[in-house]
Amino acid sequence: MLALDKETFSYWVTHPEDLTPTDLVQLQESLSTYPYCQSLHTLLAKAASVHQRSQTVPYVRQAAAHALSRNALRKLIDNEFQWSENLLTKLNELSARHVPIPDDYQQESYALFKSKTGLGSGFPKLSLLQWANQPDQNDVLTEPIVTIPTPEDPTLTEKNLQNDLVQIVETAPALPVPTPEDIERQRQLDLIESFIKNEPRISPIKAKPTEPLEQEDLTKRSKPTGGGFVTESFAKILAKQGKVDKAIEIYKQLMVKSPEKKAYFAAKISELKGDLSDS
């Protein structure tokens, strides 16, 4: 897969109407690398609407899911935008300042961009002063050609106009009869367009005014700890402080908490009871 360069991407964004079938394939490959790029989804939907009309619906749905404005997406696909030439002007200024353009931009889109903007593969060889000193062909004085209008016969003009209208009516091609597939596709496109125009939003679920709002009792989530820390370290501290009864109680709680260590804690309790009887 050819890496998407910034010049090609900039030209796509400023000239979406020039997208080619080759660009459509490269857009699909670029989306596999940048699946969350909103501009790529929009450009792919635009290219599909021109070159793959039968597959336009899924691409438009994906673009609508990533678009910030669905009305703007609809205007782009329906050619209701007049695109800005600011970026193109900046690139022309770079060319005029003799900023070199890398030679590895051989993609079809950028070649088309260079041919449309007149950049070519090189820069003007004359300096600005030499360009200024060259005479302008428009400045050469030539004798104006005087044309004498001939009088027109209104009757002949009207007859010619009627003949032209008859020929236009006779040669007008018959409209093709839409197939069931075309009708279904148009229905889907109309449904998508109405959805985009309405821009529905999912509103949060609200309780009925007559129903009281129940507050959850958060105290039910937490279980009582039984007072203090129930750990073996805490039991040892209590035993060292001479609080043997409390230490034994902690070990009993640990036996319930960790049944697999029941024998170990039972031995600790017996040891503490022996120390208590000796004292």
Name the descriptors.
279 residues; mainly alpha; 13 helices; 0% strand; Tetratricopeptide repeat protein
Task: Walk me through what this model shows.
The chain has 279 residues and is mainly alpha-helical. Among the domains are: 129 residues, no CATH class; 47 residues, no CATH class. The chain is 57% helix and 0% strand. It is built from 13 helices and no strands. The chain is elongated, with a radius of gyration of 41 Å. The N and C termini lie far apart (85 Å). About 9% of the residues have low confidence. It comes from Spirosoma validum. This is Tetratricopeptide repeat protein.
Approximately what portion of the residues adopt beta-strand conformation? under 5%
Strand-pairing-aware structural class: mainly alpha
**What is the count of DSSP helices, taking H or I runs of 4+ residues?**
13
Number of DSSP E strands: 0
Protein name: Tetratricopeptide repeat protein
Region (Disordered): 206-229
